[in-house]
User: Fold DUF4861 family protein from Gaetbulibacter aquiaggeris.
Amino acid sequence: MLSKKIFQLAALAILVFNCSQKDNLKTITIKNTLDIERTFETVELSKGFLKVEDLSNIGIKDVESGLLQVTQAVDNDADGVEDVLLFQPQMKPLSENTYQIIYISEGEKPKAQNLCYSRFVPERTDDYAWENDKVAFRIFGPDAQRRFENNLEEGTLSSGVDAWLKKVKYPIINNWYKKYTEKTGSYHVDTGEGLDNFHVGKSRGVGGVAYKKDSIYYVSKNFTKWRTITTGPLRTSFYVEYKNWDAGGKQIIESKVISLDLGNNFSKFEVTIEGADNISPGLTMHEKDGIVSSDETNWVSYWQPHFDSELGMALLTKKEFFNGYEEYNVAAEDLSNAYLHLKIINGKTMYYAGFGWKKSDQFSNKEEWEHYLNDFTERLNNPLEVVIVN
Assistant:
């Protein structure tokens, strides 16, 4: 009799729980105010916005199609609790989509390949590398700096950002480093997936920052600390910080959260700075045989011949951070860069840095590249509008 009562109570508890979850369903609308199709834009839904305590069992269903969307929950502050839920709606020009926020089990979640990936790479001194289905990058850590300063092999002294020119959508970081560690090949040679033939040196590469005082640009050394935040189907992100660095008498404290979303050619750099009221990420001008261009309000670009192909690089930001740009051309090796000047607001600034390689079949010329930059910045300055309906 007791076991029967326990069973009835358990059944009642399940019923109440299910009804409670059903009652808590929410509906959101997402509005595209631009007359352009918008794909591969990531919407972030916070716990506070959704008014839920746990994002791990939340799903998003397209009301019109009935399809569950691919999502990714992210713990940004490493406290063990997921803070935001990501998804990428497919929006037609001047359209509005409706989605239902529902509770789902782990087994009900749509599966997607993890194309957004990053990791610390101790087997190659101490790089940190990241990629998605379009592009790949890496930066250099303290052991690489130590090796350089002590004249050891495989030393690198640089806070510039290296570009890995990939041709394929699938992840290549682990494959390319495996070639290096097992000595079965070189990622400096293209065997069909692309290659690293991009020189950084003392330059800013694709987005390393600098501070200008008088006519001189000052830069930090290699990153000193790192923390992976997330990898997944829609985003990879990580945190890095640098040893305090001198900029003509100013002591600058710098850290960054770098993220890269699915379908994007640009990594987002969210920078925290103390000791300066402006900062300038840069693009290396290599042999100085390319063309610097800008829209004067959001971006600066450098399109150049690159071995047997062509390469476009760019820096973009929102209008509120834009503070001009400069083509800095000097005789010293690796120090000629196209700079994007940024305002620092309440100790923070933000920019995007990325590239498009002609051999990846994404952009065939400078005009196509700049059309992508204009489209990207228009979407950046006019984000999708998200509203809870009930």
Observations:
- The domain at 117-381 is CATH 2.70.98 (Beta-galactosidase; Chain A, domain 5).
